[in-house]
Write a structure and sequence with these properties.
globular, binds ligand ANZ, 37 strands, binds zinc ion, 865 residues, four-stranded antiparallel beta sheet, 27 helices, alpha+beta
């Protein structure tokens, strides 16, 4: 071979893939004495094909996994499939494929693609949530939750998707519509199974402060989602009894008891018992209540929906002012299952209330006046004032600030026997019932005599029947001829199985625990194993899971702890949320989407449709999506450039938490670099010292400089990898490669230093380009797998920088750079800075007022003007 030899990735990559698999190189040794490292990426839904977003996500985890293994850890690096869920049923409806067959064939295809990418997964720990052995154990967990009072059933208002005929979680309602079907969501009452996540609300908030290695924004999102609010619950008294309503009060919840004197209406939910009572004799009100059932129950939907009300004609007494009464309205924005299902409206200080008041001509009386403003001068139009201030128009609260007024108002409610302080959470208990076939059956039997009876453990698993039909909408389990008919485990009478299945977020709430003991058929997992391997040391996934999956998983871990399954609280120690992979979109003249491979740029820089050379229009850079055709199939790219080039490319461009732009030019450049590396090493092999040769007693300056370069590269590269700055690590690698290219290897000490450099280079890029590294590792004379070669150690003496080049700023602008011995003290640095010719000439005109020195970093000079 000679220097024009091109690297042949196809052959080399296939060879090493086969060897790794034959020799089980990535199998986790569960009995290892090494410290453990659990590296995990959010497992995918098996939709059919891997896209480059997946490739980037898993490559990030893979680099970390390989790096940790080389650093002496026993690494657990599993992969699996979040395999239940709607798309499989839709495929059944659209294409007549059975959800199970469709899912397993997708899994097979995606597994092959992943194996192609050379990820160091231990495939023996593979888990698919639709495997009976997996959901069998999930049914056990459900029964345990039931025993411990964590799972329970209740009738609840739910989001009903009229197209998918299915209940949706709040999280699945986007802008009032079903996340999948796009249908306007309705509210319905159904008996559902719930998990009591709200009992853990405080613990879930408190735990956030221990998650120091999580992105701050994710912690904030979780805190807001849980939405703890401290307030007060109190009663308004109805002076005249209402026939059929068995109370003389309307109880409300407020977070602003200080604003009570600004109250101009009481609003109750259309589902409030008082509303339902009054509607019996009031057909117009009944129509209004029906109207309000349209739209989702999620707070965001209610906030954006138009405010609508219905005047009941009733009035309640003002709690502190006998001369006043307040009208009672039904309002569509009041939720029945939050607080008490009723509130008092203070239009001056709440945006919803002011919109409502303006619409229905109710008074707007400001009671909190911004600091420094006279109450008489303060008026409001259409925007409520929600800021801080001093109380006015409020009798015994006048002159207090908001915090003091809140406390005094609560004391007054208590003194009158009307109410007390209370904490509320936006978070509701988690409804897990889905009226769907392709999910984990809820292990319950309904008996007319005994009620809801848990399926005895020895009768588990409750298996999904295969022979189901999808010719009609709704749940096929419901209409299966035999499946649901059974006998009651208690009284042996006729009974029916629960036909609802569990929400798929349940499946993904414990898969990371199962990975520690994937094949256990006795129990969900062995306690000792999980206690050893958990928490996950590095979790990588999309920011879109900031509140749902990540909150449920944190809850599940605690719930399992309380059932005795494990001893930890938090499942994920480090969390990394990667950016999206974007690509430009293209359309033809008729506005139809075109794939990137269907267009080309002509010499004028205009885009053309290749097929007929008509103009094409390049559009926005957006997240890759099938519907806009701006996708790239990683398989095709891998075919052309090899796997290592794809792995390198997806990490090289931008910091991994940022979005990434996929370009053809980018992957091309990466491919050239792969070849350059290969040739560099291949060409020097005959000239460097033999493997294992003794270190020379002394080094020439040139050889010593090379060694310094090598050790500095180890230091900065390793630091970048630890910090997830893969793009910086790769940039360093490119520089190092360039610098190595120009060095002559003519003396024994240089031959030795150059071997050190080559071994280092290969080891450093091994986590990113493992196939090429494995190949060159053999060429360097090694016979063990490179993943097991100890990570290069930095010689601190060699890595220490001799000199640093730093900027000198004058009034914040860099005016000069100076080079000086590393570690120079502030005084020396200042001297060198002010003696720099450019700086000296500036200072000659305007003397320095102040000089700030950060040794080895920067000098900042402040001058007048
Ligand atoms: C009077 C008031 C005056 C309020 C004011 C706000 C501002 P968070 O923070 O989310 O807990 N509320 C109470 N129950 C409700 C329900 N079932 N559906 C919709 N809204 C409800 O919000 C608490 C506030 O939301 C409460 O404080 C109440 O309005 C309203 F200047 O009471 B407030
Ligand atoms: Zn029974």
């Amino acid at each position: 071979m000679n220097s024009t030899t091109r690297y042949n990735p196809k052959e080399t990559e296939a060879k090493w893939r086969q060897t790794w698999s034959d020799e089980q190189v990535f199998k986790t040794k569960f009995d290892s004495k090494r410290p453990k490292y659990y590296s995990l990426e959010m497992f995918p839904y098996p939709s059919g094909r891997l896209h480059v977003g997946h490739a980037r996500n898993y490559t990030i985890g893979d680099v970390i996994g390989r790096y940790k293994r080389a650093s002496g850890y026993e690494v657990l690096r599993p992969m699996g499939w979040d395999a239940f869920g709607l798309p499989a049923e839709n495929a059944a409806l659209d294409r007549g494929a059975h959800p199970k067959d469709w899912t397993y064939s997708n899994i097979k295809e995606m597994r092959e693609q992943m194996q192609l990418l050379g990820f160091c997964y231990d495939w023996d720990a593979e888990v698919a949530t639709c495997d009976v052995i997996y959901y069998h154990q999930q049914q056990k967990i459900f029964l345990d939750f039931l025993k411990h009072g964590i799972a329970y059933q209740k009738e609840a208002e739910v989001n009903w998707d009229p197209i998918d005929n299915c209940v949706l979680a709040n999280e699945e309602v986007v802008d009032g519509r079903g996340w999948r079907s796009g249908a306007l969501v309705e509210r319905r009452k159904l008996t559902q199974w719930f998990f009591g996540i709200t009992k853990y609300a405080d613990e879930l908030i408190d735990g956030l402060s221990t998650l120091t290695e999580w992105p701050e924004k994710v912690r904030i999102m979780q805190e807001n989602w849980i939405g703890k609010s401290q307030g007060c619950r109190f009663n308004f008294i109805l002076p005249v009894p209402v026939a059929g309503y068995d109370s003389d009060k309307i109880e409300v919840f407020t977070t602003r008891p200080d604003t009570i004197f600004g109250a101009s209406f009481v609003a109750i939910s259309p589902q409030h018992p008082l509303s339902l009572t009054l509607a019996k004799d009031n057909p117009a009100m009944a129509v209004f209540i029906e109207e309000c059932k349209k739209g989702g129950t999620a707070a965001a939907d209610i906030e954006t929906a138009e405010k609508k009300g219905f005047d009941t004609g009733l009035r309640v007494a003002h709690p502190f002012d006998d001369t006043k009464t307040i009208p009672v309205w039904l309002a569509n924005f009041v939720l029945m299952d939050y607080g008490t299902g009723a509130l008092f409206g203070c239009p001056a200080h709440d945006q919803r209330d002011i919109e409502f008041a303006r619409k229905y001509n109710l008074p707007v009386l400001p009671v909190v006046i911004p600091h420094g403003v006279k109450p008489a001068d303060f008026t409001l139009e259409n925007d409520a004032y929600t800021g801080d201030g001093i109380l006015a128009n409020s009798e015994f609260l006048n002159g207090l600030d908001v915090i003091a007024a809140k406390q005094k108002a609560i004391d007054a409610f208590v003194a009158k026997g009307l109410g007390q302080a209370e904490t509320n959470y936006r978070l509701r208990d988690w409804g897990v019932s889905r009226q769907r076939y392709w999910g984990c059956p809820i292990p319950i039997i309904h008996c007319d005599t005994c009620g809801a009876v848990p399926v005895p453990e020895n009768q588990l698993p409750v298996e999904l029947p295969y022979d189901v039909t999808f010719d009609r909408p709704g749940n096929p389990l419901d209409r299966h001829p035999t499946w649901k008919h059974t006998t009651c485990p208690k009284c042996s009478g006729k009974a029916q199985r629960e036909t609802d299945t569990m929400a798929t977020f349940v499946d993904s709430s414990w898969y990371f625990l199962r990975f520690c003991d994937a094949k256990n058929t006795e129990k969900p997992f062995d306690k000792d194993r999980v206690n050893h391997w958990m928490p996950v040391d590095q979790y990588v996934g999309g920011i879109e899971h900031a509140v749902l999956h990540l909150l449920y998983a944190r809850f599940f871990t605690r719930a399992l702890r309380d059932c005795g399954y494990l001893n930890i609280d938090e499942p994920f120690r480090n969390l990394f949320t990667q950016g999206m992979v974007n690509h430009h979109t293209y359309r033809d003249q008729d506005g139809k989407w075109l794939y990137p491979y269907e267009v080309e740029k002509n010499s004028n820089g205009d885009w053309l449709k290749i097929a007929d050379q008509t103009p094409a229009i390049a559009g926005d850079l957006i997240k890759m999506s099938k519907s806009k055709k701006n996708t790239v199939d990683p398989s095709e790219i891998m075919e052309t450039y090899g796997i290592d080039a794809v792995r390198l490319f997806v990490l090289s461009d931008s910091p991994p938490e940022k979005d990434f732009e996929w370009t053809a030019a980018g992957i091309d450049g990466t491919w050239r670099f792969v070849n350059k590396l290969y040739r560099l090493i291949f060409d020097v092999l005959p000239h460097i010292a033999a493997k294992g040769s003794a270190q020379p007693a002394s080094f020439s300056d040139a050889a010593l400089n090379l060694r310094k370069l090598t050790h500095r590269t180890i230091a900065t590269f390793t630091d970048s990898i630890e910090k997830f700055h893969f793009n910086a690590a790769i940039a360093r690698l490119r520089e190092y490669t360039n610098e190595l290219g120009g060095i002559k290897i003519d003396t024994p000490d240089m031959q030795w230093a150059y071997r050190e450099a080559m071994e280092t280079l290969v080891q450093l890029f091994a986590p990113i380009m493992p196939h090429l590294a494995e190949e060159l590792w053999r060429d360097l004379g090694y016979s063990d797998f490179i993943i097991d070669a100890a990570w290069p150690q930095v010689d601190a003496e060699l890595a220490r920088k001799d000199s640093v080049t730093i900027g000198v700023q004058v009034n914040g602008k860099v005016r000069a750079t100076i080079t000086l011995p590393a570690g120079s003290d502030a005084k020396t640095t200042e001297q060198i800075a002010v003696n720099d010719p450019k700086i000296a000439s500036i200072l000659a005109q305007t003397p320095a007022k102040k000089i700030i020195v950060v040794p080895d970093r920067i000098v900042n000079i402040v001058v007048a003007g």
